[in-house]
Amino acid sequence: MYTIERSVDLHAPVLLLSFTGWVDAGGVGTEAAGLIASGGEVVGHFDADALFDFRVNRPTASFIDGKLTAVEYPEISITARSIEGTDLLVVSGTEPEFRWHGFVKSMYELTQQFGVSQLIAIGSVPGPVPHTLPTPVLNTSMQRDFSAEGERVAEGLLMVPSGAVTATEWHLGKLGLPTAGFWAQVPHYMNQPFTQAVITLVERVGRHLDVMFPLNDLADRADQQRVQLDEMAAQQPDIAAHIERLETLSSEDDAVPSAEQIGLEIERFLRDESEGGTQPPSGTA
Fold it and tell me: Residue 148 phi/psi, 5° resolution?
């Protein structure tokens, strides 16, 4: 289901996986994966015809002055990169729509071909978190080896529809591959990429691998976005009040909100917006 188009010499590489779609709120996960892969070399692709419904994920046609110049199809690429003595294989792109079992089998074959040492799945989920506080990261793993690090782990039973990233983590973990999942929580009121969350996710992967990834201009972009969000919130008292409630919720014992808290807070926000007739600031939803 995949083709390796050029040879590459890797030593026990780490497989990093991220897809647009179900667990990529605001495109944070795939942007982080792209930054981690930057400076690497695309060495292969998965078979798009086998994995995508092009009527759902339609190719993009580009025209210049009426002339058709390109048609770009959704894809899943395989990028190899080495940094600070760590080899990486980054598999990222559009979430597959078909043949998940076949895709997972191909992913397993890929791990065997390259001698992959572990799998890291990354993504982002909307949550009752404000843009004014550090971005929380929820951790998952088949082994929970890193739980002693004291970072956030959702307690109790949480059942949600799975994305292809999580399904891959599950099946490869059952076959014995060490796994870790890092999921940035982004403010649920935003409908644009949240740059601070991208930085947090890249840095979290870096700490896990003991590697420092260059952030390029992300810090400046995050500062600019923070100023814009603060200005927009200041113009709408209802939005500002909602952000204050989220700050209070996030500061209570520094605990991970329960599924019930998440649902109630989002419902309250939507109800207040409906009853008050106010609109979220531009760039939020």
Answer: -70, -15
Instruction: Give the CB-side neighbour count of residue 34, counting CA atoms within 13 A.
Output: 14
Token duo for residue 181: 């999942």
Give φ, ψ of 166 to 5 degrees: -70, -40
> Cα–Cα–Cα angle for 254, 137, 126, nearest 5°?
100
Residues 163, 181: Cα–Cα separation, whole Å = 12
Kindly state the tokens that stand for 58: 């339609």
- Interatomic CA distance for residues 180 and 162, integer angstroms: 16
Are the CB atoms for 33 and 92 separated by under 8 Å? yes
Domains delineated in the chain: 2-216 (3.40.50.10900)
Query: So what's the pLDDT on residue 35?
Result: 95
Q: What pLDDT sits at residue 284?
A: 42
DSSP string, 175-242: TT--EEEEEEEEETTB-S--HHHHHHHHHHHHHHHT-----TTHHHHHHHHHHHHHHHHHT-HHHHHH
Q: What would the pLDDT profile of 98-124 be if each residue is shown by its tens digit?
A: 999 999 999 999 999 999 999 999 999
| C-alpha dist (Å) from residue 97 to 19, 41, 113 | 11, 26, 25
Query: Rounded to an integer, what distance in angstroms lies between the CA atom of residue 218 and that of residue 216?
Result: 6
Residues in the chain with pLDDT values less than 70:
144-158, 251-285
Q: Return the pLDDT at 148.
A: 42
